[in-house]
Amino acid sequence: MDRFRTVGILAAVGLMLAGCASQSVKPLVDPFPLRFPLVEAGTLEIEGHIVGQPRVQDNILYYLTREGFLTALVVPSQSVLWRSKDEHLPLSSPAVAGDISFLRDADLLRAVDAGGNPVWEFRAGGAVPADPVQAGDRVYFGDAERMFYCLDAANGKVKWRRRLQGAPLHPALIRGDTVAVAASNSVVYLLSRKGGSILSWEAIPSRVIYELAAAGGLALITSASPTIVALDLRTGKRAGQYESGPLVAGAVWSPPYVVLFIEDEDSGRQRLVFLRSR
After folding, report:
1. Which of 29, 88, 203, 245 is deepest in the core (most CB within 10 A)?
2. pLDDT-based confidence at residue 198 (cuts at 50, 70, 90)
3. Mean pLDDT throughout 31-55?
4. Per-residue pLDDT tens for 224-235?
5. Quick one: how many helices (H) and strands (E) in the chain?
């Protein structure tokens, strides 16, 4: 499947889920807190091979395959809701009125409104490798020169910046007062959301090749190794880990399940693995 079409479809799914999330009310108490150890609670063979990072919203998991299909799967029942060939899918979705979107062009970050009109521009010290994340009235992202930024979402002015020992690789994960950043030196940094100070860091045995996923107050870290690590975003301490097979995408959390995407080394076939607290 054409690379640019793949990116377009994944972006459309991301916009769709972001729109849904903006209108949903999050529960005050997590009814299914993730606790270790984890046990396998089911598997499901994948028709094809996953590309990009699967997304989950309201217990529906969406994943795209290089064969050109987008699949929606109901996580609690571990069953396919629908599966559609990519030519029948929209490459964009309507933006919510008043929303700001971000465009990356090497070291230049542009903010545009729902009508595509420019709002502001910001030139970083190096290429911006991953999409920025907006949380409230602030925008968070890093550049290839190991600098991590927090900007005012309204005007693009710098609120704070912090140089790290590695370049941020993926979109930041923001929960409460903490910003989790996976960097190229195989370290996950926890930064203060308010001022950018480094609260703690966790060295990972191998490169963090997939973006972090939130699981309540935990960050799920998927690296090049078959070990999934959970990091407590409040304390900075490890909450547990799970040994899996070779992974082809980052783990996702859909309470009460952690969903992994695993490829068999011999056959090349892929499957979903559903884990839950023992």
Report:
1. 245
2. very high
3. 91
4. 888 899 999 999
5. 1, 23
Distance CA 54, CA 71 (A): 10
Whole-number Å distance between alpha carbons of 272 and 278: 19
Instruction: At 8, give phi and psi (nearest 5°).
Output: -65, -45
Residue with tokens 């959301």: 193
Q: What is residue 247's DSSP assignment? A: B
Distance CA 229, CA 8 (A): 30
DSSP state of 21: H
> Which residue has better confidence, 162 or 16?
162
- Name the residue type at position 152: D
Q: Is 31 helix (H, G, I), strand (E, B) or coil?
A: coil
| Residues 6 or more apart in contact with residue 147 via CB below 8 angstroms | 124, 125, 126, 161, 162, 163, 164
| Residue carrying structure tokens 């690590």 | 229
**In this structure, are residues 152 and 159 in contact, taking their beta carbons and an 8 Å threshold?**
yes
Which of 122, 119, 148, 150 is CA-nearest to residue 134?
150
Return all residues near 208 (Cβ < 8 A) that are at least 6 apart.
169, 170, 182, 183, 186, 188, 221, 222, 223
The token pair at 115 is 């009508």
